[in-house]
Amino acid sequence: MSSIRQFRTALAAGKLGSFAEVGRQVGLTQAAVSLQIKNLETELGVKLFERGPQSLTVTPDGRQVLERLEKLVSDYDHMLAQPGGVLRGTLHVGALVSALMGSFGGALARIKREYPALDLRLLAGQSGEFARMVAKGELDAAVVAEPPYSVPAGLIWTPFYQERLVLIAPQEMVRRTVLDLLHHEPFLQFDRSLWTGRLVGYALEQLGITPNIALELNSIEAIAQLVRQRYGVAIVPHLANAEWSEQQLVVKDLPGPAILRGVGMLERREHSKKAVTQALCALVADGARDARGQTLNGSRGQTPYGV
């Protein structure tokens, strides 16, 4: 008789299109994945996939079966998550490194403490790549910066909190204005190909400044470290748990209305871990309320990204 594990394997094959990729995700050999799928096809009497030399294609009958399996697995996971309010099972979540340093990182300890039966597996990376992985089913969800475009069909965005963009500079520059620093000091630019980098670019446009870019990096902490070493100044999101004012840095608000980076969860509209991600969203949002007043509703300012 087929098992939930076989159903998950078949669903992963439908999303990833390769036995080898499925094996890497679920921890099985390619041969074991192939055997599970073949046994499931035999039991159901339906050919789920057309096999190619390097890839799989879902058959029309297979697509209908996979839709029903998705619902079965979702109902099963929902049932597991309910008894006594206990969250259980495995959840694969992508997270920005900066989110781990911010309010989301603070909520993780509470989640681990209150729900030991939940196996939360984190992958650190960048927002754009996570969006692709969530859409393909390689991740159950991802904690990312607010997308700079409308959320693709099939995905939903749940906002958690917002972070103000601020300027950071070496401590000895404390008496100089933001505009003076941006005009005359080397600028450490957050990678403009990434969502947060685009938001920094928007902030510079609002200030009417074209800075002297010395370096372009994709890590907020790396930028902060270089600012400590007097390589220049930078505009970055003000992370909840970053103690920059105690680390030879001065933090200055930007002139004008605050520009905000939204942080939240991106997930598929329908997926088998929905009950768990909904509970996770509630926990993180609750934790964010205690982190320097940076809840979504409590922030005042602007973000250029309408989602």
Shape: elongated
Any low-confidence stretches, pLDDT <50, length ≥5? 292-300
Q: Would you identify the CATH H-level superfamily of the largest domain? A: Periplasmic binding protein-like II
The tally of helices reads 11
Short description:
With 307 residues, the chain is α/β, with parallel strands linked by helices.
Could you explain how this protein is built, in words?
The strands form three sheets. Strands 3, 4, 5, 6, 9, 10 and 11 form a seven-stranded mixed beta sheet that branches. The protein has a two-stranded antiparallel sheet with strand order 1-2. With 307 residues, the chain is α/β, with parallel strands linked by helices. Helix content is 42%, strand content 23%. It is elongated. The longest helix has 22 residues, at 60-81.
Main attributes of the structure:
D-Maltodextrin-Binding Protein, domain 2; seven-stranded mixed β-sheet; alpha/beta; 11 helices
Architecture blueprint of SSEs:
Blueprint: H1 4-16, H2 19-26, H3 30-44, E1 49-51, E2 56-58, H4 60-81, E3 89-96, H5 97-101, H6 103-114, E4 118-125, H7 127-136, E5 141-145, E6 155-170, H8 178-184, E7 186-190, H9 195-207, E8 212-217, H10 220-228, E9 234-237, E10 249-253, E11 260-268, H11 274-288
Parallel strand pairs: 3-4, 3-5, 7-8
Antiparallel strand pairs: 1-2, 5-11, 6-9, 6-10, 6-11
